[in-house]
Amino acid sequence: MTKIRYATIKDLKKIMDLCDLVRAQLREDQIDMWDEDYPNEEIFGEDIQRKNLIVAVDGRKILGAISFNFDLKTELFFDVEDETVCEAEISKLLASCLATKETVMSLHRLMVHPDHQRQGIATRLIQEAEKVGLGKTIILFTEANNQKAINLYLRLGYTRNGMYTFTFGSLAYLYKKA
Q1: Rounded to an integer, what distance in angstroms lies between the CA atom of residue 113 and that of residue 166?
Q2: Over the stretch 96-120, which tens digit does the pLDDT of each residue have?
Q3: Residues 7 and 56 sit within 8 Å (Cβ to Cβ)
């Protein structure tokens, strides 16, 4: 039976193993959001310390995970050193959220073991994260050619609310659920 819970530091090795499997699948599907440097053990470790990482487990096996964050500048633009660029991008991409002073939660790094996809695990992970963000606007990005993710987000009530070009050149869509 699959349980949803917060990740602990003891889960980190299994989370990284899962990440490697999902990263390989994304490459195979020609989805370039994750590379050999992102996401990494340090990022997942920080998610665990902040209690911002939820996992789906069956016995001792981690079947999936999702991260969430309330600090958009840090999370969305972690690789940009010039904070004025961060502010400009946030203003451009998230104007509809920030103009109304909404509290925004962003979802990140959703992954499900390739052998356990299409079994509702991603839906359960997102729904659990949404409980944490109850009453907040929730946003997420996905690469424009990640049709599986796009279909999932649309089915869960997210609407496309913008586009962004990642620093490595891929086009991504911003999805929002209020």
Answers
A1: 25
A2: 555 555 578 889 999 999 999 999 9
A3: no
